[in-house]
Amino acid sequence: MISERTGQVIPINIEEEMKSCYIDYAMSVIIGRAIPDARDGLKPVHRRTLFAMREMGNTSDKPYKKSARIVGDVMGKYHPHGDAAIYDTLVKMAQPFSYRYMLVDGQGNFGSIDGDAAAAMRYTEARLTKVAEELLEDIDKETVDFVPNFDESLQEPEVLPARLPNLLLNGSSGIAVGMATNMPPHNLREVCNAVCRIIDEPTTSVDELMRIMPAPDFPTGGIIMGTEGIRDAYLTGRGKCVVRGVAEIEEEGRNPRIIISEIPYQVNKARLIEHIAGLVRDKKLDGISDIRDESDRDGLRVVIELKKGAMPQVILNFLYKHTALESSFGIINLAIVEKQPHVLNLKEIISEFLKHRTEVVRRRSEFDLRKAEERIHILRGLLIALDNIDAVIATIRGSQTTDEAKNALISRFALDEAQVDAILKMQLRRLAALEHQKIVDERDGLAREIERLQAILASEAAMFAEIRKEIGEIADRYGEERRSGIQYSIGSIEKEDLIEDKPMLVSLTLSNYIKRIDLDTYRGQRRGGRGVIGMATKEDDMVERVFVANMHDYLLCVTNKGRAYWVKVYDIPESNRTSKGKALVNLLNLNEERVTAVIPVREFSPDRFLFFATRAGTVAKIPLDEFSRPRQSGINAITLREGDDLVDVMLTDGSRDLVLTTQYGQSLRFSEETVRSLHRNAMGVRGIRLRDDDTLQSATVAEKDHLLTITEKGYGKRTDFDEFRGHGRGTMGVKNIVTDLRSGVVVASTAVSDDDEIIVMSASGIVIRTKVSEISIQKRSTRGVRVMKLGAGDRVVGVAILRSDEDAEEDAV
User: Fold this and answer.
1) Domains of the chain and CATH, by start
2) Taking the CB of residue 240, how many other CB atoms lie within 10 A of it?
3) Per-residue model confidence (pLDDT) at position 507
4) Is 22 a catalytic residue?
């Protein structure tokens, strides 16, 4: 790089320079183009367009102006990014099927729901709507900051005063660099009521707000199917809204027909009809004889004529499932807050609007108060002059110059220069008695207004009352009924919707008794403690496995015969701490087989894999989606050689390093990519070479911070993964931990983060919960430290990892 000041060449790191430039570019796109501001719900191009139209006097009570003139003003003064982008913005704000509350009143062809483009800007005309004027109200009262435009020749508002929460009313969509926003529109009356509720009761929860505004309200109507995904969006900022078009079945006449009167938001009607026609043409949908689009200016109407004997409800259900007649709107509530992008929940969106509105009302009140005080000051001077009019006239007539008259009036009547200027400009008609009374009335009115403004500025409660009054007026002025219906039927609510998705501790015994317990049952203890009773077992039974799973997870259970079964965690009866649980045979259709491996699964994604490891050191990698269709009788998962059984099953992404650990402490690290993907019922390949009397005990993915190894006598340690050099698959690996009479053989070896917790369970059902950070980090070939103090004859049989919040979020992704 060449210095502009000295002309010398300055060496720079090109990698760092590219990173810096790209981050600057990304933030410019995020802040300056693609993501709306949480305060007024507008992107810069929308804000500049509305402001330019106001500056042109292009308001709702004035005649329309040519769109080309508006676009030229916006581009020349505020937004030099091309006329096409500005005109597209103007067009969208004028489309009744795009905006729930249009901000531009268009005249001419502004496009259609069929995807037809708007006429050229030289043909169309536009002006602001009354709703848009509410966004611009009080902008002349120093309510918002102004910044220089692109060439610093003019000033433009950083944000609009926004008397209404536009971000919720009209939503927004945009793709930035590395992030996107997709916010649905809502009903104005419901939103205003929710804002008022937050003002009245700041501690109102999101669930309580949902009773006021239960779901989005789309300009194209439709029926919202269930509210669970919407609740997720309102709680976390991300969720899903399923919208179904409105269709009726008419049985009149010779043949039945389906009439579609509303379609989901952002669905192209023409493409929807083409898709249906394509399904009929390709013989994927039978029973339709004709499709007609009878839509006109009075509304949307698509007629689907059915063949004689066709079942209308079956065809309609097919259309819902296979066409855009039922669509999902993925909600991402991403907006700019204090010049940074943030994902906001419903309450945060309302709070950001109220924070902005409070600042606007404060600045407006200060401006109005200043103007009122200046005016009442002048009026007081005028009244003094009128009360002493003869003396004032004599003083003025006796002065040689205006400055001499000013000074004389100031000294004689205790006035200031502003008051004297007003007196000297006073017209003779003000001497009339009625004019004198008008000044008195104006002074008294201003005195009351000053008192009101001072009260607003002196009290937060008064300020919120003012905001609440304005919101109520807007709701009365523009409020209307919902367009989108909401279906709360039982069919749209699954069993899971009624169950909290919280983590549970699941334990399984050798005799296949299973139970789940709330994690809060076990409080944390220091390393080396004795623990508490976690499960009552029969004399000939003992705990074999223990792990943490969420209530909505599937438990993929693999048996000693290599068959896989499914059970939801919430279907496992919740038990108290000391109960033995429920026999798995009562939950699964087992056929003289025993479950030997259990793994929690949330989604059966095709890009994830199940990695099987057997006692004899065999491994197999099978795509997860091959297990996505459960059968009551189970399905074949893996073929096991005679005398072999499963040790572990892991979820992987196909590209990680794996660590296999034997019961005598040998550990082998190798790349998962060296194991090719197989189909279900495969036999697998050799993973680790074993000594004659050794067996594979544990398998884990080489991730997180350390490898935690626990032995049956309660000893354990953490070891850096770098201690284990990658070896070829099928080799013997290296020594991991000392296994002798004092420590016993390895029970579990798994990847952990420093801020995780572990739950250790013994064969007699004793459980201890402790922090991973309390277990020391040691080199290979050491015994470790005591993790759990065991009773005589007892031994550790299971270790469960309780992930930290951050790790749990990563795993969910």
Assistant:
1) 42-161 (3.90.199.10), 246-324 (3.30.1360.40), 351-478 (1.10.268.10), 495-812 (2.120.10.90)
2) 14
3) 79
4) no
